[in-house]
Amino acid sequence: MQLVLETRKSSWASFGKLIASLLAVGAVTAACKYSGVNQTTTGFAYLLTVLFIASGWGFGYTVVASIVAMLCYNFFFLPPIGQFTITDPQNWIALGAFLVTGIVAGQLSASVKRQANAAIGRQLELERLYSLGRSILLDSVDQSVPSRLARHVAEAFELRAVTLFDLKTSRNYLAGPEDLAVPAGTLQRILAGDAEHPALPDSRCAVIRLGTKPAGVLAVRGIVSDTALDAISSLVAIGLERARTQEVESLAKAARQSEELKSTLLDAIAHEFKTPLTSIKAATTTVLAEDHLTGQDRELLSIVNEETDRLDNLVSDAIQMSRIEGGKFKLRRSVVSPNQVIETVIAQMRPRLEDRPVVTAVAPNVSGISIDRDLIQLSLRQLVDNALKHASGKSPIEVGADLGGSEVRFWVRDDGPGISAAEADRVFERFYRGRLNRHAVPGSGIGLSVVREIARAHGGDAFVESIPGEGSRFIIKVPLATDELR
Fold first, then answer.
1. Is there a single domain that holds both residue 239 and residue 291?
2. Digit-coded pLDDT (tens) for 60-83
3. In this structure, is residue 130 part of a structural domain?
4. pTM of the full predicted structure?
C-alpha cells in the first residue's frame, strides 16, 4: 500500500512539472508578444526558459519545453505569422539551432544534476554508514546482538524491512515497519554462493562473512546501493565478530576465575591437611625415639611415619600443581646437581616404588645446573608415577640426565605399551588420556600437562620418544648457559 501511494505521489509530481514547463513557455510567449520585442530577443527568452527548466527538472521536461517553445516561436514570431510555416531558409537554420541548443543544454544539465544527486547520495550513504558503525561499536554485547544489529541497519538507512539471518543460531531477526520473510531454501542458496537464486520481491540480499567464512545473510527492502549494501554487511559482520569475541573473552575470564578459585580452595584445604600431618609426624618421631618399643610396635609406627611423609609430599605436590594450573608460580632457581635431584625423587617415591628396581644414569659431564629444584623434582615425580602406571610387572624403571649441546635433558623410561606417533604430542594436553589406556590406567590427564608447563617456564620443553609395544621415554629439556655449570 505504501509503495502504491509513493508511486501515485511521484506521478502527480511529474505531471505538475510538465504543466509548469508548458506554463513557463506560454508566459514567455505572451510577454514577448505583447511587449513587441524583436525575434532575436524572443529567441533568447525562450532559450533561457529552456535552460532554467533543464537546470531544475531534467532532460525530459527540457525536450518537451524545447519543442513547444520552437512551435510557439514559429507560430507567433516568424513570418508568416499565425501559421506553422517558415518562408525564409535562414529561419529554419535558426529554429533548428535553437532546438538543438535547448536539447543539448537540457542533456548537459540533466547529466550534471544526476552527478550532483549521485554525490549527495554517496555523501548521505557515508553519513549513514558512519552512524551505523558508531551505533554498532557503542552497543552493548549480550544475547540480543543480532536483533539490535538488524534494528540499527533499518534505522540508519530508513529501510522498510531488514532481515538478519544468523548462521550460528539459525534464526531470523527482523526490523523495520514491514516483514521480510526469506525462505530457508533461498537462504541456503545464497550462502552457497548461488548467483541465480530467486530474487525476493523489491528486496536485495548480501552474505555476511567473518573472514572467508559465511556467518549469515542480510536482506533489505528499501533504497540502498550495492556498494552501501556490501559496506553494511561488513559492519554487521564486525558487530557479530565483536559480540562473539567478547563472549569468548567472558568464558575465558570465567575459566580463569574458576581456576583461581580452585587453586585458592585447594591451597586452603592442603594447608588444613598440613597441620594434622605435622602433628602426626612429630608424635610418631617422638614415640620412635623411645627405647621401650617392641619390634612390632616400632614397625607399625615406622609405617605410619613413612606414610605421613608420603601424604605430606602428595599435599605439597597438589599445592604446586594447582598453582601451576592457575598460572601463579615463579621459578626459584638454584644451582643443583642433576644426580642429587634424581636421588631425591627416587627417595621420595620409594613407598610407591616398593621393590621395583630403578636404574639411574646421569652423564658425568653434567655436574651442576640452574633450575627450580622443587618444580623439576615435581615433574620427575609425575613422570615416575606415570611410568609405574604403565610399566609391566616388576620391570625396572630408568631415570637419568644427560647434556646435549646447550641443553640438559632429564628423562624417565619404562617398558610399557608405548605411545603412537599420532598421540605423542597430545598426551601433554590437559585432561587428555591415551586411547588404549584411558580406562585401564587411573589418572586425571593433568600430570603431563603440568610437566610441560614447568619445562616451558624454564625456557625448554617436554616430549616423548616411543615405539608402540617397546615402551616410552619421557624427556624434560632445559636450556643451559655455560656460566651456570659448576
1. no
2. 777 777 778 777 877 787 777 777
3. no
4. 0.46
